[in-house]
Design goal:
- 29% of the residues lie in helices and 24% in strands.
- It is of the alpha+beta class and 323 residues long.
- The protein has an eight-stranded mixed beta sheet, sandwiched between helices. Strands 12-11-13-15-14 form a five-stranded mixed beta sheet, with helices on both faces.
- Strand 11, helix 4 and strand 12 form a beta-alpha-beta unit.
- Helix 5 runs parallel beside helix 6.
- It binds 2,5-anhydro-1,6-di-O-phosphono-D-glucitol (AHG) and manganese (II) ion (MN) (3 copies).
- The site of 2,5-anhydro-1,6-di-O-phosphono-D-glucitol has 11 residues, from strand 5.
């Protein structure tokens, strides 16, 4: 089976980027090990602190963030980091050539129930002029990413990654400690009959998504003329992994609860990297108004509405926004 290194070389990734990815994944392997130890390692449960997102941090949020930060900061490849769990950007090496953004632990409410969690990341070039503590270089659209991916800490530890030459899936071979290519060039089926949305928020949705989901639920008796199934992992990594594997549409739409927060998911740490993976696998990733990867961020913790997945299903959903 092909190793990660050879696939990255085949995809034309420069050596320094390959080394950076390997460094980042060394951190993820450590998280994978800690996660697998669960209660035995005392890593489960909450802390007493709140992050900049207004969420109570789980111990694993803090531990994972620290592992990735320590691993990347000393590598020499990274000029600065932005993280869901850090209020400000974290300055690294002045001569580092890359910027890394990450959600160190996605789906952290699943830690207590031994269910799916993961790490989501993206990498962009660091401009020469940039000072390591300057957040403005992170405020570029997702189209500027040079690589993005996630590591899913499931029954097996899997990596989904793209450097812009297709989305590939790898599985961590724990016997030798490396990621091996298990599916090259993932293609998401263009049609689907599976959707993912937290329907407990229904009363807060706007009209287009209200009508779209009502029509999905109406099934074969409604305008969509087929029955749909629903899934919700409560971890975006789990839901997006399912969409990459067998198609579907994943939605975290605009929410009228707080007009200042346009959706729950974070552009830099969640929406953009997943959009890159989905687009590279032939799917679509939209805010409802435009392509996620073209959103110009105004601050590092910006949130966006997200609609991602099978091409034709996302197109059908977007028709409700046009109407
Ligand atoms: P995080 O654990 O990094 O804060 O992200 C949680 C996100 C995302 O992974 C998931 O899709 C969504 O929150 C779940 O939200 P609900 O609480 O509405 O289920
Ligand atoms: Mn969180
Ligand atoms: Mn998350
Ligand atoms: Mn998180």
């Amino acid at each position: 089976m092909k190793r990660l290194n050879s696939q990255l070389q085949q995809d034309g990734a420069p050596l320094e980027l390959i080394l950076l990815i390997r460094t980042l994944l060394a951190g993820c392997k450590e998280i994978s090990f800690r996660v697998s130890q669960g209660a035995l390692a005392g890593v489960l449960g909450s802390t007493l602190s709140e992050n900049v997102q207004g969420e109570t941090q789980k111990k694993l949020d803090v531990i994972s963030n620290q592992i990735l930060k320590d691993t990347l900061r000393d590598s020499g490849y990274v000029k600065a980091i932005s993280s869901e769990e850090e209020e400000d950007v974290v300055p690294c090496s002045a001569d580092g050539n890359y910027l890394v953004s990450f959600d160190p632990l996605d789906g952290s409410s699943n830690t207590e129930i031994n269910s799916l969690i993961g790490t989501i990341f993206s990498i962009a070039h660091a401009p020469q002029w940039m000072k390591p503590d300057d957040p403005s270089a992170f405020l570029q659209p997702g189209t500027q990413m040079v690589a993005a991916g996630y590591v899913l800490y499931g029954p097996s530890t899997m990596l989904a990654m793209t450097t812009g030459r297709g989305t590939h899936l790898y599985t961590l071979d724990k016997t030798h400690g490396g990621f091996l290519l298990t599916q090259a060039n993932v293609k998401i089926p263009e049609q689907t009959s599976e959707f993912a949305i937290n329907t407990s928020n229904q009363r807060h949705w706007e009209a287009p998504i209200q009508q779209y989901v009502a029509d999905l639920i109406a099934g074969a008796d409604g305008p969509r003329k087929k029955d749909y199934n629903m899934r919700w992992v409560a971890a975006m990594v789990g839901d997006i992994h399912r969409v990459l594997c067998r198609g579907g549409i994943f939605m975290y739409p605009f929410d009228k609860r707080n007009p200042k927060i346009p959706g729950k998911l974070r552009l830099l740490y969640e929406a953009n990297p997943m959009a890159f993976l989905i687009e590279q696998a032939g799917g679509l990733a939209s805010t409802g108004e435009g392509r996620i990867m073209e959103v110009m961020p105004s601050e590092i913790h910006q949130r966006v509405p997200t609609l991602l997945g099978s091409k034709e299903e996302v197109e059908s959903c977007l028709e409700y926004y046009v109407k």
